[in-house]
## 1
Amino acid sequence: MTHNKSDTAISDSIPAESNSGWDIEALSPRQLRVVLVCDVVESVRWMEHDEDNAITRWSQFAAAVRSSIAPEHAGSVVKSTGDGLMLEFESAPQAVAAANAMQKLASEGNAGYESERQMHLRVGIHQAQVRRDAHDLYGHGVNLAARIVGLANPGEIVVTPEVRDGLTDGLDGSIEDMGDSYLKHFEQMQRTYRIHQTAHAPEIHPLKSQPLLSVAVIPFNAVTDIELSVSGDALADGLISHLSKAPELRVTSRLTANAVSHRRWPASKVAKTLGVAYIITTQCWALSGRLIVSHELIDATEDTVVFNRRYSLTFESLLNSDCTEILDMANDILSAMRETEVKRAKTQPLPSIDSAHALMAAVTLMHRTSRNDFQRAFSVLDYLQDRHPRHALLRAWMAKWFVLESEQGWSVDRNQSAMRAIECSRRALDLDQESSMALSIDGFVRCNLFKDFDTALVQYERALLANPSDCLAWLFKSMLHAFRGENKLSVPALTEALALSPLDPNRYFFDSLAASVHLSAANYGLAIEYAKQSIRANSTHVSTYRALTIAQIMAGYTNEARQTAAKLLQLDPNLTVSRYLERSPGVQFGIGRDFAYALREAGIPN
């Protein structure tokens, strides 16, 4: 269909900034906006067939765009001519979504009309710096948006590279490169893209073989404020970096999450599109030279906000890799997530809970101070193993459960717990020989329950070869060197473990082992500090009280040591020095005997 000359009414009516008689002082400062221009194809011929009907239909269409379509996509109508509209938006996805809605509305309005009486639209979209007054938008970018309309066929949407860069192929539509084209009054050729509407947005499905809880951090984007947009991206990167270290989480990349950052979708649609269980949204403001950040954690399963909080930090600290404020944000978010999953696991029957939700609950419950919670963790893991019999991670977590049961003194038969632990870790490695988690736990079982240090060290080295950032492998390796009295190796390994584990659900466990490592290195002050820090988080962890008792004796704090020993005996009434010597992996290297003497001095019976 040939384009009629009158179709250029909008573009021809836009003045260049150099025109005389134009009050430039009345214009706003330049703003980055997405400009959408649409017009009716061959409007003159369309009007000739039935002018009154055409005017009525166009008026109804323009009114619907102004009252419904534009507001629904966070846009506004700038002006209307006899056969065209100009709209503005903050983002490219919003503009394209609105254009698709306009094309759909026009198409639906053609039902029942013969071809010559049908109204067909063409749309051009460009993003540029523009200026405005009370009635219009001005600038080179506005002219370009109006000109590229002529490249669109009836029912089509054509966009510039600036718009295309803000779109996600497949999510915003199918994007076709149209190559370079000549435009009237433009010296250089213009690259353009045609947008084809897709029936359904693609969905990212969670990995069925990995029952990990998934989360997406949606970056904050302020189209009109570059500094806030950059801050939003840096904030999202920081949160993703910290959350990715949580072993029971799968975190969506920022670039993927960014594809939905401008979309006014309900949480359920965002979650379905990204294949996640939780969504973290952010808002940012600049206030008195500081960045104010507000977070919401949304449980997509229930479509509810489970956590929201506001934080304040400097713009400079945001760019530091060790920004404590971002770490605090991540810790708060993860804690809220874990509490939500624990509540779900305690109040809903296991068959009704998704595996990813159940696993996070089990890992959290495993490290609780309550024996009932610890037993509930076993029930959840046992159920998950039946549901996913070939998943290595579940077997590894179960092996760790048996080690913790034995270390805590809750095992009815220590030898049986040891055998079940090694059975689980072996099964995990049968399922996945390269799993750093399975290798680390297998080494942990062999070291702590079987005192097989050589094999344990091999497993830790294999784990670190598979994943140099495996914090458990570094932690367990540091403890093994401590048992051997190899302090030049134990302390650096511990430092690496602590640096890699800011969000580990059992941070008290890391602090407890840190106390033992520094105790072996004769750093008694640090040992006491880490032990007390661990006890603040878990007041019933038996091995921490043993380390604190010994460190206090070694440091000369006898009275404090005897008070700690009394608490230790309340938690583990069957503890004796002889039983400690029987169980302690460090006894065969001599250091365990020094510790046994310290326990005796503190009042632990022989």
## 2
Amino acid sequence: MQQTVDKLAGELEKQYKDGLSYFRRMGFLDKWPEYERFKASDQWPAATQRTKHLPRPVFNVIKMIETHKVANVMSEQIKMIFSLEEVDDQQPEQEDDPGELFSRNSEATWERIKQDELNEEALDTAANTGTAIWHYYWDNSIKGGNKYPYIGEMEGEILDPINVFFGNEQQRNVQKQPFIIISSREPVESVRDYARANGISTAMAKQIKPDKETQDQGYDMAKVELNDSNKVTVLTRYWKGNGKVMFCKVAAGITIKKPTSTGLSLYPIAVMQWDRRKKSIRGIGDTEGLIPNQKAINTLVAMQILSVQLTGWPKLVYKSGAINPSKVTNAPGEMIEDNSPPGNGGVSYLNPGPISANAANLVESIMAFTRQMTGADEAATGSAPSADLNATAIMLLQKAAAIPIESIKRRFYRAIEDIGRIWEDFWKVKYNLSRQVLLKDEEGDDYATMFNGSQYQDVGFTLKIDVGPSSTYSESLVVSGLENALGAGHITYEQYLKYMPKNTVPYRDRLMKEMDEKKGIIGMMEQIVEQMSPEERAQFDTLTPEQQVMTLLNVVAPQQPAPEMMGQSPQAVPMQQPMPIGM
């Protein structure tokens, strides 16, 4: 059996080395770390003896453009809407709709695993290197529930493209991959504990030794570890067998997790390309085309700064013996004694060559063209060309400017749909015991219900990604539209409060509750008056306002004293019998 295990480990490590060899041939191990350095503002080469006094300004256009584009892609609110594939018209309606249950559970899962943060990290990586990779796994260390205890929960993480190796790099469909390998650097002790927990003997686990294979990690921060003899490379491989996803783990030539079925039908990995590359699952990021522009901008600005320095502090030229160099400083207005013979000109300043005025214009032109070509111009980033534009005009400009990145948004929404299918697979397979989950109803209020996804293993669902506005400008449009409708009398004040964004009206729920309570009594009074006969209405109109209120209150709530309910003292209302009302 050990020979089989070693053979499996050798096969997996060979596939891993083949993946690294492919990365080297494509130049990924050199390009991706360079992209990361430029985005992190490390954009100048190391200083030499000749260039140590050269200014090194950094105007990080790459980070500005990619940050705004990522924010634009994430500007809409996303929801997963599950519904049944087939509906039996003759079957009576059930109170619990499986599609609605899965949809609301997706919202709760989205909040629990912080999916927005995962999406932001994935899109940052995609904008820089070209590829975003989401990975979801089952974590048995999570435990919870008192009345309904459970063990295990689905978790998510973002993988860097430099640590993921696909069996077929030319196949863009993840689910058609023959295998997927994930590499990671883990502490040796934790790897040994994991191996022993999965049936590996203690003697075999001790053979897991630390290694120094950090150069293949690519990035500068990954190459330097806190302790060079404390980590080992762990390889995780997914593949499909008999329609189910299998996985195993290998470290230091030893299989620490034997081939095991996950029970899932889909690879728990979703991939998105920032910009498509022909015949490759790897995408193209913005940094690849922005580096030359970034270098030109930094160099032009550096030359301008150097010119100003040389003009403001020109170099002093003197003949031997004319002055004492040790007494010359950079103090303004300093006097220098010239000991050279008359007429020899022993001391003078060098006048630097003037810099072209086109340099500053060229910097602005390069930045403007770069932003325009990448879809990150002023309108897209929210900078209005005129201060007189309102929120509606700015939003329309943003929509027009966002057309170049609409294709990126579509690929992002497709990736979210793939993630929804992975979640559905996890729910049907791993959530096989009833557990209590906290969901939200249509009003946004929390409610608890029981969830057992394995009950729906044979139920087919359709999945739709619902995209709704959630930016500041869209909220401004909602508020503006509701105010106009209220002013025109098309809606009531109650409707105005109900549909206003929650963060724009403090204590909205409390205010609506008080209005509903007040409306209950007043509405009953108005109904009584409307149902009076003409004679009763004429007699009712002859009463004073205080008498009218007391009469109506005696009908609505005869058990309560009317004066106290109105906040009046008993003497404020004439003591007389209320008029009879034919109700």
